[in-house]
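Support case: user asked for a sample of complex input and structure output to validate their parser. Sending the pair below.
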Amino acid sequence: MPTASTSHSTFDPRHHVGVHAERVSNVSSTDFPGYYPDEDHSWDLDQFNQRLKVKVQRLSGRSIEFDLVGTDASIANAFRRILIAEVPTISVERVYVWDNTSVVVDEILAQRIGLVPLNVDPAWMDTKETTNDQATDRNTLVFRLKVACERNKNAPKGSTDPREMYINSDVLSSHLEWEPQGEQATVFASSPPAPTNPNIVLGKLRPGQEIDIEMHAVKGVGKDHAKFCPVATASYRLLPLVILNPEKPVPPHLAEKFQKCFSPGVIRVDPQTKAISLDEQNMRKESMSREVYRHPEFEGCTQLARVRDHFLFSIESEGFYPPERLLPESISVMRGKIANIRRAAEALLADNNNAGDVVMADA
Amino acid sequence: MANLGEEVNEWEHLNRTNWRGLGLVDPIKSVEDKWLLLPAFLKVKGLVKQHIDSFNYFVDVDIKNIVKANNKVTSDVDPRFWLKYTDINVGYPDRTDLDAIDKSITPHECRLRDITYSAPVVVTIQYTRGKSVVRRPNVNIGRLPIMLRSNKCILTGKNEAQLARMTECPLDPGGYFVVKGTEKVILVQEQLSKNRIIVETDSVKGVVQASCTSSTHGGLKSKTYVATKKGKIYLRHNSIHEDVPIVIALKALGIQADKEILLLTAGNTEAYKSAFSANLEEAAKLGVFTHHQALEWIGTRVKVNRKVVGPRRPAWEEALEALATIVLAHVPVKGLDLRSKAIFVATMTRRVLMAMDDEKMVDDRDYVGNKRLELAGQLLALLFEDLFKTFNSNLKSSIDKVLKKPSRTNEFDAFNTMQFQGDHITSGFIRAISTGNWSLKRFKMERAGVTHVLSRLSFISALGMMTRISSQFEKTRKVSGPRALQPSQWGMLCPSDTPEGEACGLVKNLALMTHITTDVEEEPIVRLAFMLGVEDISLATGTEIYGPHTFVVNVNGTIVGLTRYPTRFVSNFRRLRRAGRLSEFVGVYINHHHHAVHIASDGGRICRPMIIVESGRPRVTSDHIMLLKKGVATFDDFLRKGLVEYLDVNEENDSYIALYESDIVPTTTHLEIEPFTLLGAVAGLIPYPHHNQSPRNTYQCAMGKQAIGAIGYNQFNRIDTLLYLSVYPQQPMVKTKTIELIGYDRLPAGQNATVAVMSYSGYDIEDALILNKASLDRGYGRCQVLRKNATLIRKYPNGTFDRLADAPLDENGQIQKKYDIVQLDGLAGVGERVDPGDVYINKQTPTNANDNSFTGQAAAVPYKNSPMTYKSPVAGYIDKVLVSDTENDQTLIKVLIRQTRRPELGDKFSSRHGQKGVCGLIVNQEDMPFNDQGINPDTIMNPHGFPSRMTVGKMIELLAGKAGVLSGKLQYGTAFGGSKVEDMSRILIEKGFNYAGKDMLTSGITGEPMEAYVYFGPIYYQKLSEIVVAYLSSSLNSSNLATEHMVMDKMHARARGPRATLTRQPTEGRSREGGLRLGEMERDCLIGYGATQLLLERLMISSDKFEVNACQECGLMGYNGWCTYCKSSKRMAQLTIPYAAKLLFQELMAMNVIPRLVLDDA
């Protein structure tokens, strides 16, 4: 059951984004989120703490779904954006091709290898400040890919499957071999760097073809290139809300049809009385297809809405980070940015006495 | 109750028109999947069957006829000598290299080595040697370029694995030639049909004329007119100086009696009789009454071009010869019996009379039934005939030369002479095909641009080229008729696929299921017609011919006889054709306006197959389709069993064709196989084209050919001048049946982009697109450009030769940077990066290569560098290096350089609905909007693209694509069918989406939901190879150089600078450091605004201001305060005018015009 405060928040029309047949209403909160004219909403940490909720709904090896309640869209969106663009990861940046006789040409192979997620904790590595920076064992990981395809002498007779006929017919991400440099052997001893997924096909080979390349992986962020993005997707949606109109109940003979207008489990129909009721727990399953608005017989029976400050986050991790670490990681990036702004502001304050332009430090 | 029931039954009985056991209210059982006939048809015929059939006909049949017609070579010197060709055969392509052991060759080798894919033409000859007759088989007379996938091509009948071994793409349609390494297509040429009467009127001049272009097998072509002039009718022909009054012409053709002439032309129709009477009068006035008089009259007016000197023949003989052989040459004349020709002329006259009487009786030039298509085979046949004749005359003269010698050491053998005839035929073919100039003086043919290089920009462009038809009309003529869409094009020519601009409507494309006929022998058909009860025309008089119930029977335009029962005759004829007793491509139809039955067996008619309907039922049943599905039956079986038949345009117009089975009524004769076949291969790519505004489909047809994608399974083995390839091509989510049939799903050119139809950022106005940067990072729209760089390592006549050298060292013993990719053999290594300015072939040429007097040691000559350097501003990679040699033993080196490009600002994209746009902004993923599933669009398209374009098909494509994605299936958007919107919506609802395809998006920038729902889903997008604004983006470091370079090229400004001598105005153009013109329109603006001082400054002060002295007395210009006219300096004034004005005054004075200046103080 919803707690008193969320219930207050959830069913408070002020917190609703109206979902109508052809438009969405009240998409923005006020200019000062959470404040309303002539009311006292002065910011209070305790109150905020009480409202703020983060609850994990589902956690698997690769994805997490959690609720973030009680913040403004700008904050939730900031986390989403940071997850996509600014949480650092390690990816292959430079590819040195010694030999490549496969059909996949060097540039394409390099691009494909770049997109392979690596299971390296970025915290253990430095960022190469400029592209011309010297590669060191602190900022660069070296991988090697050396695959040659040959005929499989033990292949079953008459086989047409290339994977049976040839050895190394597919070049997979598992063929990437890490070559420790300097002190890396000891630093990464507990978890040697490798692709998170060993089964990514990088290219295909046939007997006589071979690939011999060296790769340098560095630390980077998603806004630079999508290969540095730690997530497959990081997004949120607002908590759906179906509000039944008590004035106009759904006629019993149409109950099943009404139920079908929503995602399974959202609407309960009493098998005997055909009375409609909402399943509060399953409300989040509603996909907001607005199907109910299409049928004139249900006009006025119901109103769809979404809760503006209740974010249903869904993050799929594809890189090194376990899904549950991603939100804290994005928070720490954000804190870093805040600290940066604070430093800049303080510098501005200190500098304010000397007139003139203020040079902003690189973010 | 019972009563009522009875009543109902009664009513039912009335309602129910029982017809051969089938009631009208009965549901018609439809033949499921009858469209499967289409793949069956394509399996037999292939996509470019018209070219291949035509070529096959040439090499198998026509070439033999040509040789038969020119089979004898005799000598003027020795009358006992003769040489006869008894047979000719075209072999299979082979290798011409002398030292080759394996003679087999593949087309791909020819492409790579810049040689010609040709086969030997061998003849069997018989000739006299001394007193004996010698027979020699397999004498090579030359080589013929072979059309790919034709009968003589080694690729024909090969399976996919065999083709792969020959590095050939199984989806390649063939139908083109490989000549000197380039792929050449002989485009289909559209012409007016030969040997048919066409009646036209010129309403301005009030002229009615019937014309007939005669063409016989011998290549002679002449046009005969029967035209009105001042109310009278004349026969006009190029070989006769003057227009021949029609009565005189007919009399000369052996119809003496005026009564007979009147009957044969006007018949018994009073209106025609009175219109014709003036002509009889004229002949009488001219004093021409008899056959002989008529011949004499014409004979004096015949153009005689006779080379053979001999006794002058009497005029009547000249006339007789001209009439028998030149005028209407296609009408057969036996002996000197010209009656058939007379009847033909009479018919033409009658058609003119009919058109004079009723304007509607004229023919339509643009009617597709009056058109013939000329294909590769026919053009090659003409070329061969010309070459063969020249070959023979050359042979004859060299034989004469030998025979002229009085004494010979050994017996003369013509075979030896033949061996030394050179490669006239071979080089003739190669020259004609590679230049496209068909100039055959013998046939008065002078055509340029017959062949084109096969466009390999994309698979579709190659395919589109094979179905293209070019018209003979000049493009400048301002008539809309030939360009307009003709109703008779239905199903034959694609209504959408035509270029925009000057060639619009003149260049057409074949529809999917068309076939172009080749010649069928005429004689058996005539015999058959007589057997079916046709009465011979030469036995008939005008009364019978134009009798109310008689129908004239024509075979290929010539009148052969009469019939009283045209319907019975035609249906019998058709029955025989359906039974396979004569070629399926012989057409027969009744023309009710002209009371005529026409049988056509000539080549070049467009036809297409249709299901025969008999007794209101299609003859193809579900059982037949089952057999087809099982692979037991082929399309030919359907033809043989008389289930389907080919109809040409004329016969199609005489049939009653149902589009769908439900439309069949008792009078229906045929059923369409599938409506979407009315579109061509290129228009067939468009999903839901029937929902689009028609010009959009036409635009897509043009753009589909520019789309970058896969071009063939052998694309990585090809070395083309320029090759665009997509890195990750995808088959479209929304397919059409055509796509599957032509193999576009296996060689696609585009990607399924997730599109949000919304406005974003303002950088999407005017059809610009917004692209997602992350999508580009992941490979969306990435393409490769491969460019060929070739050079020859030549051997020179003086014994010297080019050579390749390794990289030279500089003074420090280091290899220069620009040589760093050159390896020891003087060629760049494969896989090396080529930067601008790098050398990739380090070739050296001897300094005295062209010095033919040089006789020294070839190895000792001094060499100069002539390397190939990389010019493009963007770095590339060496993709392939080919070292080979050409047919004349020159070493050929080809280096393929590859660039991989990711989409940039300014790159052009288009959907399949004629909606192109350039990339206006590349946006980071986090800034892109996203839906509840967290999906970002790859592309954002502005919704303003829809209302004016009305491309509803694109919207349905999105909907169907989205439904397909959600259900894990590919959907179909086939024309006049395809997945229904209703079904698509249902799938969307089932998957929890809005039925209209509109998603609720969240802004990636604010994080708040968007106020509108956004149409969101996959649309197939093509990247077009024509890049609008290249190198605009400065985001790539490597292209920064290019940016500067480009801007440097264009940048220009001037404060002061050179002026033109004559006018003293600033020069024009950047190259001359010229000024920027303030033009007329700009001037108009300033006038309108009233900025007089600015105008004065721009037009005079900053341009060519000039101080002059003018005399207020005489108004002329003087100098230094002195007027030379008044000889005084009294009333001189100084004023400022443009130098050009001063120049004008002086020029006027030079022409004796005095411009006087009247000055006033302002």
